[in-house]
Amino acid sequence: MKELSCTKCLLKNLCIPKHLKAADFKEFEDIIKHSHTLNRGEHIHHQDEPINSLFIIRSGSVKQYVSRNNNEEQILDFFLPGELIGLDSFNMPFYGNSVIALESTSYCTLPLSKFKSLYEKMPILQEAMLNLMSKTISSEKEMLLSACNKSADARFATFLLGLSRRYSTLGYPENQIHLSMSRQEMGNYLGLTSETVSRIITRFQNDKLISVNQKDINIPNMTKFENVCTSICH
Length: 234
Fold this sequence. Notes:
alpha+beta, Jelly Rolls, Arc Repressor Mutant, subunit A, 2 domains, 4-stranded antiparallel sheet, 8 helices, 22% strand
């Protein structure tokens, strides 16, 4: 099996802080356990398990969710390649949620004790984590405001635009979006029923805003879609 390394990984600019000195990069790389694999439906970790690692998605995608007392699932987020999982539990004894693969997925592991040791002595790593946490909080606030104040169409359009931007950072065309999650899962995340999500997709198709090929969405005119999104979001 070919040995994996951060140096040769196409995602290194997404998940490793920029401007690390060569020695710091090597020290960071040395603590990473590369590329575990999951099939759809397998977990990276479960809610209430002792926290021992952070995780970086290498390929595929996962969903993060909490289980309530009545065993109902509430989806908190979806993660794509290059994205870091576990910061929300960074200083907690247990994971506050579960993370499960939506498709065939690989990921890298950052043992938490070793990561914290590097964090304490690398100011550039501290800065990167603070920036990431700030972006995460901003995204969560946007989703909360969306759920409270925006129409169903606006919520779904905002969701697609967010995925578009995230896929574009991976080198994909910004108008092409892969939906690894089901309509029920999208609805759960957005506070909508799966039937409402299906109706919105059909309406967007009829209005020529998107085209759908199974789990892939194409936005033929990105400027038009963004303008429509802006209009329905206000």
